[in-house]
Amino acid sequence: MRLFLYEIKKLWSKKxxxxxxxxxxxxxxxxxxxxxxTASSYVASPKAxxxxxIDLKGMTEEQKVKYIQSQFDMISGxxxxxxxxxxxxxxxxxxxxxxxxxxxxxxxxxxxxxxxKTYIKYTDNLYTEYYFLxxxxxxxxxxxxxENFLEEIQKKAVQLSQISIFNKEGSYDSLNIKATAKAYEDxxxxxxxxxxxxxxxxxxxxxxSDVVLIFIMIxxxxxIVREEKDNGLLTLIRTNSAGRTKTAVVKxxxxxxxxxxxxxxIYVVNLFFCNYTYGLGSLTRSIQSIPYLMRSxxxxxxxxxxxxxxxxxxxAAFICGVWILFSMVLTKRVFTGYxxxxxxxxxxxxxxxxxxxxxxxxxxxxxxxVSFLTTNEILGSYRNIYWFGKPVRxxxxxxxxxxxxxxxxxxxxxxxFEKAQLSKSDNKKISFNIKRKYKATxxxxxxxxxxxxxxxxxxxxxxxxxxxxxxxxxxxxxxxxEEMFYSYYMKEITGPYDTKSxxxxxxxxxxxxxxxxxxxxxxxxxxxxxxxxxxxxxxxALNMEYEVYRQVLDKVKFxxxxxxxxxxxDTGYIKLFDFNDLLDLKDYLFxxxxxxxxxxxxxxxxxxxxxxxxxxxxxxxxxYTAKTKIKVSFIVSGIITAVSIAPRFWQVGKDYGxxxxxxxxxxxxxxxxxxxxIPVVALIIFMIGVRLLVTFTxxxxxxxxxxxxxxxxxxxxxSVLLLGFPAIxxxxxxxxxxxxxxxxxxxxxxxxxxxxxxxxxxxxxxxxVSIIYVTYTLLTDEYSVV
Length: 786
Description:
- This protein is an all-alpha fold.
- The chain is built from 35 helices and two strands.
- Helix 3 crosses helix 13 and helix 22 packs across helix 26 (540-561).
- Residues 427-434 have low confidence and may be disordered.
């Protein structure tokens, strides 16, 4: 016991290990957060699930079903109306025919709701609302229909047993049908309680959490055995009085306990995050309430399932962890140890994906390390697999396979630890006998090489470009029927209001003659209010276009009454400048991450490698080198700025266009208080410049941290903590933390809002410049200290 406690203390008291472990847990949190940031406008955000979870709390199951069905019926009707309105914008006759025909009842029922725009409750636009409620409606039907699901299994069992190819007595198919029916026969009467499952499912099935867990296993094995082997201490440790076997067993136990902490940490973080963002619902409801887990035959609630899940995941991780311990002890080189550690899970993944679930070889498919880590497959469903002509439940096959793997892996680790020659590892680099060609270079080229290649900034930027490109490709802007009408009018008259614009609007006005005539007849009492309503209803689309036309006329009136303002199609610019504060915060967080990863090693790399003394001896000296590093960093900061903002320009240009770039910026609704001499294009340049300033400010802070610390990982962690933690708190709703970040400057719209917020943005801009100046001075002055 004393040796075991010493091994645990030795591992968990190491600052380097704790730093790496914390980093991997943070990586897992970042990945699951990133997965919740939907690229498509038609995918509901976590807030939608959270709000629905709150709304359903306190309702009976019957009330929940009725509420969700009514919301879905309404949004389905509204969606049909919206599609017809969009068609009307380019094919009025066809759309009017549909309105007068098969869709007349829908217009009568939901037409007024569509006009008032009171149908959006959980998401940002109509189609996202529709897909969200469609998904929720399907979920609650599954959950509330659990008894019907059980009855259907029994019916299918009877039906299949009557078919000749399945009813052969003693055959696998016949035995499987009977076994499945019997398994579900004893679990009827379970009460279900519906809540949206998205948060819970994401928390326990996010696949990259398993990837992070594998890297934690490698980290643990590196510190438990590899580090001691590399420095030659493992040979000495094996000679202690406890003996080799006890020492090996203690290391296995240390791996097991440490993995229990790691698994718990990862999934507790997942659950807390998903509860805050999505909502988990009641943890006391049965797992059959969750469609994702309703095929389980266990009579337990969600909280109990989570405990069993973490325990089972730990067992699976422990099996993989012992294999990685063995790999690290067996191999001579560190790199070979990493390759062998990952080779088994990768090979098992290939085998799992190659064998179909219905194959007679499915025992091999499920009896492997990857299947052990796919915990919900074992616990959350019922499945029989083929075993020499008989159906065997997957649960028992996995348990038997897990025992066999555990025994084999522990045995080969113990044998290797006892018998192998564990001399100090050979860490020589692989040599290909290639003669290097040396040529003259410059400090700038050398520092550029250090930043982009040695520190991996080029790789990070490449990943960032791919990620942003994917977001730009997937993103869609929801454009309403009214927006299509508005776009048609405003694109035609953007610019100064002149004779051409007047003639265009006058010509368009003629199409609304039926509405004017009906209104006049009502005023002269030639028709009743009911008849007038019937006329307007029959001209529903024309009436909607008329409302947009009136808005355009209001803009024309405003332009005529205010000097220096012109007409402009401003929807795209409002999105570009993010006046609604929906996009900039995500960009800000990603900028923090990319700058931290890119620049954290630029200064500390020389400290860790001892190159500071070499640089100090160069003719140009330390100060020149520091200035060159900053110059290179500024260029890369510009690239980061461009990559972060490019998807938004793409989306706006594709869906709205950039008409009126040289129109005075004060023509945009939210910018009436600025000078008439500033065109829209100047504001766009200023926005890019402000983002570059903030990005470079972050870069300088990261460089300063890098100069003070000796480790790249430490610099990354400290940079992300300093710059990112307040921003994450703000993202999670802690409003005041915005003021201890640079976000008031980064969010360009702040500069033009009314009140003190605008003043604060300008003050924070001055603060950014001050930070750059101070860090520049400190970096160039203090870099000479070796």
